[in-house]
Design goal:
Elements: H1 9-32, H2 38-60, H3 71-94, H4 97-104, H5 107-118, H6 127-144, H7 153-175, H8 183-201, H9 214-241, H10 244-248, H11 253-266, H12 272-288
């Protein structure tokens, strides 16, 4: 197996840009929610993302194939993907971007705990254990802080469940025949399976639209094309070039940027407990991803 490179300045710039993209996307989801109901918005995004990924694969001449053993697991990963984003989009509709992002981007903590139990060679030791303790403390603090009138306990809990779903998808990709599938095919299967599921269940959550306008349509296009389509394709490329530990070490930037965007763009009030929670989660993610 070819050894991956350490992160170089160009890679660091690309990963920082990707973290900014993910953080800004949280704000876009929140704003687009004024035009489209959360679950319907997630379904439309998956439809658009599927078209973008298929077009990109066609332009690159990549085959749309999957090992037979991975097909049922792919469907399962798509269902978990739909569940994850149902929870996240409703969370962002109910609570602030700052709170939802801090809690959602705690995913490496729950993935690390699961990996410690089920993945060989990924035991938690030293700095990783301290990092998990700090990050979990930050999440607990964010959940416990009810001083902000914009906070929603249900929204916060849904963001936490979405983080569990995200970790579950990664475990499926690591522990099942999905690991034999090309990364871009993994992404394609998830958006293709999730799209009809999300659109089918969307009416269960109320009216599908909320006075949509051009801004909200642009928000959907941004999510489908820039984030799920091209953004994740670039991320998969970075994962194929650089060491996974180096790529993962940039994960702490997304909640930091998201909190700043929520404050600067949406005018969210961020009290001291939320800032402390952010510091604990970010520091914990840095320690978790240390070699």
């Amino acid at each position: 197996m070819e050894e991956k490179r350490a992160i170089d300045p160009a890679g660091a710039a690309a990963l920082t840009g990707f973290a900014l993209l993910l953080a800004f996307n949280q704000v876009v989801i929140k704003l687009t929610g004024d035009g489209f109901a959360p679950v319907f918005q997630a379904g439309l995004r998956s439809v658009g993302a599927a078209l973008v990924v298929l077009l990109w694969m066609r332009l690159r001449g990549l085959p749309v194939t999957a090992p037979r053993a991975a097909i049922l697991w792919g469907v399962l990963s798509g269902l978990v993907f739909a569940f994850e984003f149902t929870c996240l989009y409703i969370a962002l509709d109910l609570t602030t971007v700052a709170r939802a992002s801090i809690i959602f981007y705690s995913m490496p903590v729950w993935l690390g705990l699961a990996a410690h139990l089920w993945l060989p060679g990924e035991r938690i030791t030293g700095p990783g254990a301290l990092g998990m303790a700090l990050a979990m403390g930050g999440v607990a603090l964010a959940l416990a802080d009810r001083s902000n009138g914009q906070a929603s306990l249900i929204g916060d809990l849904l963001a936490l469940i979405a983080a569990f779903g995200w970790a579950g998808i990664i475990l499926l990709l690591r522990m099942t025949p999905l690991s034999q599938m090309a990364p871009v095919m993994q992404l394609l299967v998830q958006v293709v399976v999730s799209a009809p599921v999300l659109l089918a269940v969307a009416p269960l959550f109320g009216p599908l639209t909320r006075d949509p306008g051009a801004l909200h349509v642009a928000g959907l296009a941004f999510q489908a094309i820039c984030v799920v389509g091209l953004g994740y394709i670039v991320w998969f490329h970075l994962m194929s070039v650089f060491r996974a530990s180096g790529v993962a070490s940039f994960s702490f930037l997304s909640p930091v940027f998201a909190v700043v965007f929520g404050w600067a763009i949406l005018g969210e009030h961020i009290g001291p407990p939320v800032w402390i929670a952010l510091v604990l989660v970010a520091l914990g993610l840095v320690l978790i991803n240390r070699k």
